[in-house]
Specification:
It is a single chain. This protein is α+β, with helices and mostly antiparallel strands. The protein has four helices and nine strands. The strands form two sheets. It has a five-stranded mixed beta sheet. The chain has a four-stranded antiparallel beta sheet with strand order 7-6-8-9, sandwiched between helices. Helix 1 crosses helix 2. The longest helix is centred in the middle third of the chain and has 22 residues.
Length: 231
C-alpha cells in the first residue's frame, strides 16, 4: 500500500486552475496531490538581447523558485545566485516548452514562464512543466485575441510525470516519501503524440535491467496521456 492509498500506476489528484493571478497573460495554479505550483507566462514584445537581428525566432525561457515555506523546513530564498538544482530545473522547463512550439511563429517576442512552488511533496519540476504548457497556451490565446499573433505557435501539447522503483515496485507520480526512498528515480516528458522531449532515469542504488526501464517508460506514457486528457 502506498503512503496515500493509491495503486502503483495511479496518478495523484490533479487540478489546474486557470487565470489564477490577475496581471500575467497566462497563469495557472497546478496541483498534483499536495504539490502546488503557481505558473505564470509573461510576454515581452521584443527579442532577447543575445539574439541576432537576423534570427527570425521568438524565445521562451523559464525561472523556477521553491518558496521558503514550501517544505517542512524553511529554505532560504535564492536572491543573488541560484543553486545548481534550480538552474537545472529552469533549463529543463524552458527546453521542454520550446520543444512544443514553432518559435518562428512568435518572432520578435519573448515569453518568460515563472514557476513558484508554494507547497512541495515531490514532482515539482514535472508539475511546473505541465502548468507551464497551460500558462503558455493561455498566453498565446490572448495574444491571438488581441491581434498580436496570427495563429498559435504550439505544435502539440506536452506533459511530464515522475516515476520510480520503490521497494522493488514501479510507482507512478511519486510523492516526497516515495521519491526519497526510491531505488530508481525517473522524470519523463513527452508530447501528445508520444515523442520524447526528455527521459531522465537514475539508479540510486544497484543497477537495474533494461526491461524494467521499458516498463517504466510505458507506465509513464500512460500517465502522461491521462494528464493531457485533463488539459
Amino acid at each position: 500500500m502506498r503512503y496515500d492509498g493509491r495503486s502503483a500506476n495511479e496518478l495523484r489528484d490533479i487540478k489546474f486552475t486557470h487565470n489564477f493571478t490577475k496581471h500575467a497573460l497566462g497563469s495557472v495554479l497546478v496541483e498534483f496531490g499536495d504539490t502546488k505550483v503557481i505558473v505564470t507566462a509573461s510576454v515581452d514584445l521584443k527579442k532577447p538581447k543575445w539574439m541576432e537581428d537576423s534570427d527570425e525566432r521568438g524565445w521562451i525561457t523559464a525561472e523556477y523558485s521553491l518558496l521558503p515555506s514550501a517544505t517542512n523546513t524553511r529554505c532560504k530564498r535564492e536572491r543573488d545566485k541560484v543553486s545548481g538544482r534550480t538552474h537545472e530545473i529552469q533549463r529543463l522547463i524552458g527546453r521542454s516548452l520550446r520543444a512544443c512550439v514553432d518559435l518562428k511563429k512568435m518572432s520578435g517576442m519573448t515569453i518568460t514562464v515563472d514557476a513558484d512552488v508554494i507547497q512541495a511533496d515531490g514532482g515539482t519540476r514535472t508539475a511546473s512543466i505541465c502548468g507551464g504548457y497551460l500558462a503558455l497556451k493561455d498566453a498565446f490565446d490572448k495574444l491571438i485575441k488581441d491581434g498580436k499573433l496570427n495563429e498559435s505557435p504550439i505544435i502539440e501539447p506536452i506533459a511530464a510525470i515522475s516515476i520510480g522503483i520503490v521497494n522493488g515496485e514501479i510507482l507512478l507520480d511519486l510523492c516526497y516519501e516515495e521519491d526519497s526512498n526510491a531505488q530508481v528515480d525517473s522524470n519523463v516528458i513527452l508530447t501528445k503524440s508520444g515523442k520524447i522531449v526528455d527521459f531522465q532515469t537514475t539508479s540510486e542504488g544497484e543497477p537495474y535491467e533494461y526491461e524494467r526501464m521499458l516498463e517504466l517508460f510505458k507506465i509513464a506514457k500512460e500517465g502522461i496521456n491521462t494528464i493531457i486528457e485533463k488539459y
